[in-house]
């Protein structure tokens, strides 16, 4: 059996990142609404706006590279994200205070995964070739810097939530 072509693998890789971006966008929107009117809510709303833009950037890179969208993965990721909010948390009606900590940890992992994706595209750009030559390494640097800043914000919010919820 032949090995998949690099472009086929890139299609899977970027499709998976797009599915994660779709789920992350939905999770951030939900978390921002849950914390509306607070400093955490404002920070999450600002991050949500950036994540929406980051997802657009990923779609743009996919077009530049000739990578098709696999819409079914985006739908599945968004549905899975929504189902994840249904897990038992010791509360029947209200939101558990622990949910904030867990959500922030999940968002942080997602942003770190996004940063890894931007670094992978940087590697592709550095390698050159027919695909890498289509990428703008300077723009990828900007996106990576933004992801690292987003991770810093989420880590600060996570630490604050841990202190508020678990340290009493």
UniProtKB/TrEMBL annotation:
Coiled coil feature spans: 137-164
Protein name per Swiss-Prot or TrEMBL: DUF222 domain-containing protein
Domain of life: Bacteria
Annotated keywords: Coiled coil
Organism: Kineococcus endophyticus
């Amino acid at each position: 059996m032949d090995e998949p072509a690099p472009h086929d693998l890139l299609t899977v890789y970027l499709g998976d990142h797009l599915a994660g971006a779709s789920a992350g966008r939905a999770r951030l929107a939900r978390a921002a609404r849950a914390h509306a009117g607070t400093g955490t809510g404002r920070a999450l709303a600002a991050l949500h706006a950036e994540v929406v833009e980051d997802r657009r950037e990923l779609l743009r890179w996919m077009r530049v590279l000739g990578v098709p969208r696999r819409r079914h993965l985006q739908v599945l990721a968004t549905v899975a994200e929504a189902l994840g909010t249904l897990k038992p948390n010791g509360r029947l009606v209200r939101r558990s205070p622990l949910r904030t900590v867990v959500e922030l940890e999940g968002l942080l992992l997602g942003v770190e995964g996004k940063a890894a994706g931007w670094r992978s595209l940087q590697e592709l750009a550095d390698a050159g070739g027919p695909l890498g030559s289509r990428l703008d390494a300077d723009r990828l640097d900007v996106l990576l810097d933004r992801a690292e800043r987003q991770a810093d914000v989420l880590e600060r919010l996570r630490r604050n939530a841990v202190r508020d919820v678990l340290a009493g």
